[in-house]
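Appendix B, Record 12. Input sequence as logged:
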Amino acid sequence: MVCGICIRKSPATPAAKLGTRGSGLCKKCLTDVEISSPIQKRTAKLISKYEKQIEELTSQCNIKSDECSMAWSLVESTNQELDRLKMELHQKLVQTDNFEQVLDTQTDQLRKVSQNYENDKKLWAAAISNLERKIKAMKQEQALLSLEAHDCAHAIPDLSKMIEAVRALVAQCDDLKMKYHEEMAKRKKLHNIVQETKGNIRVFCRCRPLSKVETSSGYKCVVDFDGANDGDIGIINGGTAKKTFKFDRVYTPKDDQAEVYADASPLVTSVLDGYNVCIFAYGQTGTGKTFTMEGTERNRGVNYRTLEELFKIAEERKDTVTYNISVSVLEVYNEQIRDLLATSPSSKKLEIKQAGEGSHHVPGIVEAKVEDINEVWDVLQTGSNSRAVGSNNVNEHSSRSHCMLCIMVRAKNLINGDCTRSKLWLVDLAGSERLAKTDAQGDRLKEAQNINRSLSALGDVISALASRSSHIPYRNSKLTHLLQDSLGGDSKALMFVQISPSDNDASETLSSLNFASRVRGIELGPAKKQVDTAELQKVKQMLERSKQEAKLKEESLRKLEENCQNLESKAKGKEQLYKNLQDKVKELESQLDSKTHSQITSEKQQSQLSGKLKEKEEACTALQHKIVELERKLGQQHQSDSVVAALKQTIINNKRLGLI
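Logged structural output:
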C-alpha cells in the first residue's frame, strides 16, 4: 500500500507533493504519509512524475477538444454550404432543362416555318404555272374565236339556205309536237276509262295482325282471308255464322306497305294530269290507320310514298311539263281547323273560303314548297308531331283529330301551254269509338263526340252521293267541307278501311265493313281536269305569241348577224379577261416577293435563335464546371469528416485508457 485506507474526504487539491523529509502527502486526502522505504520513495517520485504528465496530457486533451469543437462547427457550416450549393445546382439543372425545352420548341417552330415556306413556294409556283397554261389556252381560244368570226362573216351569203333548213326543222318539230299531244290525250282517255269502270270511289280493306296483348289475353282471329285474292273477306261472328264482304282489294296481315301503296299509285298519275284526288283511311281506333298513312322512317306509309311517286313522275316528264309541288298539313280537332306546320300558335281562327269554279281553300295556312323527296320526311314529321293524341281503354296513343295532308300540284305543259292546278288529300281519319267501351270522360268524351259527329257527316255525304241527291250536306262538318272539291263529281277517291282481327272487336269490325261496303261502287260521275284559271291570261298571251312566230322566223337573219357581233364581243371579252389574268399574275408575283421577304426574316430569326443556342450551351458548360468544382469541395469535406472522425476515435480511446 502507498497511503493505506483514507477515511476523511477533502476538497480537490493539486497533485500531492512531497511532505517533510521522509514523508509525502496523499493526493486525495492531503494526509502526511510517512515514506519508510526507498521503494516507496521511488514510487512517490514516479507518481509525481506521472501526475505531471497527466496534467500535461489533460491540457493537451482540452486543446484538442476545443479544436474538435471548432472542426465540428466547421463541418456543420460546410454541410450547410454544401446543401445550399446542391439546391443551387438543382435550380441550375431545372433552368437548363427549361432552356433545352424552349430551344427544342423554337427549333420545331423554325422547322415548321421552313416547311410552310417551302410548301407555299411550291403552291405559288404551281399556281403561276397553271395560270400561264390557262393564259396560253385562252390565247388559243381567242385565236379560234377570231377565225370563227371571220368564217361567220364569210358564211353570210349562205344564210338563206340556213333559214330554209331552220324553217323545215320547225315544221317537223310542230308535227312531232302534235303527234305527241294526240298520244298523250289517248293515254289519259284510256286511263280515265279504266278508272271509271272500277268506280270513282274504290275501297280497299286492310286487316292488322293480332297484337301481343291480344294474344296473351287469349283473343282469337275472327277474319277469314280465304277469298282475299278475289277481294272477299269473311267475318265469323256468333259461332259458325260468317258474313262475307266484297271490296276492290283485300290485304292480309302479311302484306307490307309497298303492296298496299302499289294499288293506290295510279291515282298519283291522275293528280299530275290535273284531277283532284282524295285518299283516306277509315276504321275503329287502334286498327292501324296512322301506320298505313304515315308509317315509320324504315317502313314508309302512303303519304311518303305518294310524294316519292309524284317527284319520280315529275322528273320523267320534266322535258314536256313543269310541276310546282307544295304541301300543307291540317287537322280537324273538335270541329276546329289547326295548321300543324305553323311555327307559332295563332289566335286567328282558320275558316274555309270558296274560290273560283267550286274549289275551296283555307286562307292563312302554311304551304311548304318541297323541291325533292329529301325535304318531304321533315315536313311530314313536323305535322305528325304536332297532332293531337290521347289515351283511352282501347289505344294508348289514340289520334284525337282528323289529320289531313294536302298536296297541291301546279302543272304547265311546255308543248301546248296548258296549265292545271290539282289537289291531293291524304286523310288519316280519327278512329270511330263506342263510348261505353272506351270509357271516355271529360276532354276525351268531348273529343270522341266530335269525332263520331264528323264521321257521321262523312257517311251522310257519301250516302247523298250514292243516291245522287240534289243536295249534298258538305257543310255539316269541317271535314266534309274541306274535302268538298275532292269528293264531288269532278274528282276521284280511294278509301282504306282498317279492321281488327280480334274477336273482342268483332262488332266494331262489322260496323266498319258495313259502312265501307256501302261506299264501294259509288259513281261520282266523270272526273274533270282542274284548269288553273290564274293561267288563262298567260295562255292567251301564248296564242298571241304563236301568231307572231312567222315574223320571228323572218328575223332569224338579223339574229345571225347579232350572233356575229356577239362573237366579236366575246373575243373582246376574252382579251379583257387575258388582261385581268396578267394583272393577277403580277399580283401573285408581288405576293411571292412578300413571301420571299418573310423567308429572309425567318432566316434572320433562325440565326438569332442559333446565337441564343450557343449562349445556352456556354452557360451549360459553365454550370458543368461549377458542378465539378462542387464535387471536388465535397470530396475535401469528406476528407475533413474522416479526420474529425479519427480525432473522435482517439479521444474515445484515451478515455478508455483513463488518460482523460
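Residues 85-198 form one domain.
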